[in-house]
Amino acid sequence: MSSEPAKIEIVPSLDCCAETTARKMHKDITAKLLAAEEVDNNIQNELELLRLFLETTDFKSLRGSYERHLIEGKTVKIYLYQEEEKPKHYIVVT
C-alpha cells in the first residue's frame, strides 16, 4: 500500500481550540488504527503528523493568531503538513 504525504485540516471553534481538536483527532485515528485489520500507511502518516504537531506547537501563540477571527464569526481552518520531517501549518480564514 503506497502512502501519501499527510495533510490534515483542523477547524477550531470558540468551544474547542486547535489543541483540543487535534488531541481528539489523534485519539480517533489511534482507535481507527487499532481496529483496522491491515496497516494503512496514510492513516499512520496522519497520526505521526498530529503527534508532532501536538508535541512541538506553541498553542498559546497559535490560538492568539486565530481567536479574534472566531470572535468575529469567521471560520478558521488550520492545515497541517510535514516538510523535512517537521510539522508545518498555515491558517485560512473565511
Walkthrough of the structure:
The chain has 94 residues and is an alpha+beta fold. The protein has helices at residues 18-35, 41-56, 59-71, and strands at 7-10, 76-83, 86-93. Strand 2 (76-83) and strand 3 (86-93) form a beta hairpin. Helix 1 (18-35) runs antiparallel to helix 2. The longest helix has 18 residues, at 18-35. It is globular and about 45 Å long. The relative contact order is 0.23. The model has no long low-confidence stretch (mean pLDDT 91).
Main features:
94 residues; alpha+beta; 3-stranded antiparallel sheet; 3 strands; globular
Summarize the structure.
This protein is 50% helix and 21% strand.
The assembly state of the depicted protein chains is single chain
Mean pLDDT: 91
Gross morphology: globular
Count the DSSP helices.
Answer: 3
Q: Please trace the helix and strand order, writing H or E for each element.
A: EHHHEE
Helical content band: 40-55%
- Class of secondary structure makeup: alpha+beta
Counted beta strands? 3
